[in-house]
Amino acid sequence: MLEIDNISVVFGGLTAVRELSFNVYPRKIVGLIGPNGAGKSTAFNAILGVFPPTSGEVRLEGRRIDRLSTHEISRLGIGRTFQNIRLFKGMSVLDNVRVALNRQFRYSFIEGLLRLPRCVKMEREIESRAMEILSYFGLAEVAQKQAGALPYGLQKYLEIARAYALHPKYLLLDEPAAGLNDSETEALTGKIRQLMNETGCGVLLIEHDMGLVMEICEYITVIEYGAKISEGSPEHVRHDPKVIEAYLGKQEEQA
Amino acid sequence: MIDGYWELLILLSLVNVIFAVSLNLVLGFNGQFSLGHAGFLAIGAYASGVATASYDLPLWAGMLLALLVSGVASVIIGYPCLRLRGDYLAIATLGFAEIIRIVLTTLPRDIFGGPTGMDNINNIKDYLSFPESFNGPGNLIFTVIFAMLLLGLLGFSAWTLSRLLAALLSRLLPWKHWRWLVLGLLAALLVWRFEKASNFFLGKFMFSQAFSPKAIASNQWAAFAACGLIVLLCLWLTRNYLASMHGRMAIAIREDEVAANNLGIDIAWMKLQNFIFASMLAGLAGALTAHTLPLIRPLGFGFFKSVEVLLMVVLGGMGSLTGSVFGAITITVLPELLRFLEQWRMVIYSLSLVLLMLFRPGGLMGTQEIGNLIRLRLFKAQERPGA
């Protein structure tokens, strides 16, 4: 279980996230939603140690991780994607995934420098594992292409494939459906669900597309101005007057 | 047998290949802007120079010491500085190189030579002793190799020049055959001035003198072979490094630091590791410089040297190993080839660099390696039948 316990993030005088708590469970898709500027991405970055939380705790399977640095947190098994895709654009699609396999197949610097047998063997394993992952996401045919030259939809898939290559226990997806059309979104959600069922990882989702969130999330946390205003099942959240107010504005009282 | 002037140029080209590859590792492959790379060259040069000249250690010990000292220096400078970004890192490394230079001028004169430098360092040829019967054929073989290389280079330049001129001319006046006209004119020029050209060529490469007593006494070929082998070794190691997971992580950091960090890559450590490797290569290049040049002095490793190597890397293409090789050779040899222009030399040299950057902003090779380019060409030719 990934527990976010009472975290706050303060930048100078601005409290971007205020005493936020929620949990992410294995084999469950949890949504984090809120209007623009509500602090969703900041909460993400706080969990991942990019901007460590000012107060509060983040625990992964009972272990505190909020004082670790980003790469240590990632190594413990939290993969992420970015709101505005951040691929290694100049590298090949295959290399993008190979980079992410740096913890599972290791050899020393000297072995790599002299290309000793262990390095050659490991590289072969890395490549076959990377190709496996790519074909799982339907990217095997474009493996040798430059990542930046892929069409937008495939770039989204590649980013998820790269995060998946970390073999994460929890996958944090920042607006995976942004910029995709309906049928692409549908395919993507199917893939995310399939991924979750097959690997048993938990998924935390930030999303603007309310339809998508309502459809795939089992549990939703709604934040506004950095603070939690509602949580519960999609059905519950949908009818919560506070959420409706935050998204659509307050209904005028009828005379 | 090649005359001493060209011998020095060829050896310096080889040394500069290592130096350029070293900066390319930092700048082109890891995206860190270092403006003080000459500092590591100086450290390597003085480490090996002092060890061999002032303390009479053997050459291998000098080189080992150069590697070690530049490695240690890279940790000292890299640990705090690599946390800086972009311009700040450039300024910090620039400051580091200046500190090295100034420290070298103030160190004890009897060991480090002071501001006037050291001229008592043994040349690399002094260390390579072979039976004299080796030297004649060896010199002849290397003379032939270099003559062929130079001919190839000149031919390639003429070919490229004709293409460039034809492109410019057809913009002024559309005509299909400009290129053949230009090539024809160049050929006519060669025939017209054949005697002068051949004298120039044969003067540089003294084929007939390969077996002269003076040539046989020199180990010229052995110096070329030794430096060439070291360069090949460095290129091989670098290529392996870039194909390994460590090299891949370094490139990933260049592409996107935040994403790399979120993939469990320890950015600070990977940058430092890359920097140490690169600096050790620069130190090795420095050691070879010390045993190639007749004199090393602190001023020779100043800001201008850092800019020169930057030029090699940018010209060759940031992120291309073969680009660095071309860049290093071009920047070393081109100013010398242009000597016939006399006072216009530096004007034409700068102008050609400006033109090159205008027409090929990514450098000669971009981020491609020559093997890939050739493969791409062949592949494309297959794709377009009849083209």
Helix content of chain A: 25-40%
Our count of domains of chain B comes out at 2
Name of the top-level CATH class of the largest domain in chain B: Mainly Alpha
* Silhouette of chain B: globular
Strand order of the largest sheet of chain A: 6-7-8-3-9-10
**Number of helical segments with 4 or more residues of chain A:** 10
Anisotropy-based shape of chain A? globular
- Gyration radius of chain B (Cα, Å) is 23 Å
Major β-sheet profile of chain B = none
**N- to C-terminal separation of chain B?**
45 Å
Low-confidence stretches of chain B: 383-387
- Assembly category: heterodimer
Order of H and E elements of chain A = EEEHEEHEHHHHEHEHEEHH
Structural class of chain B: mainly alpha
Can you put this structure into words, describing what you see?
The complex is a heterodimer of chains A (255) and B (387). Chain A has a domain at 2-77 and 167-254: Rossmann fold (3-Layer(aba) Sandwich), CATH 3.40.50.300. Chain A has 10 helices and 10 strands. Chain A starts with a strand and ends in a 7-residue tail after the last helix. The longest helix of chain A has 20 residues, at 117-136. Chain A has 255 residues and is of the alpha/beta class. A 6-stranded mixed beta sheet of chain A has the order 6-7-8-3-9-10, with helices on both faces. A 4-stranded antiparallel beta sheet of chain A has the order 2-1-4-5, with helices on one face. With 387 residues, chain B is an all-alpha fold. Chain B folds into 2 domains: 4-128 and 219-359, ABC transporter involved in vitamin B12 uptake, BtuC (Orthogonal Bundle); 133-215. Chain B is 75% helix and 0% strand. Chain B contains 18 helices and no strands. In chain B, helix 1 (4-29) packs across helix 15, helix 2 (37-54) runs parallel beside helix 4 (86-106) and helix 12 packs across helix 14 (267-290). Chain A binds chain B through residues 48, 50, 70-72, 74-75, 79-80, 82, 86-91, 95, 98-103, 105-107, 109, 111-115, 119, 122-123, 126, 162, 166, and chain B through 237, 240-241, 243-249, 251-252, 254-256, 258-267, 273, 277, 319, 367.
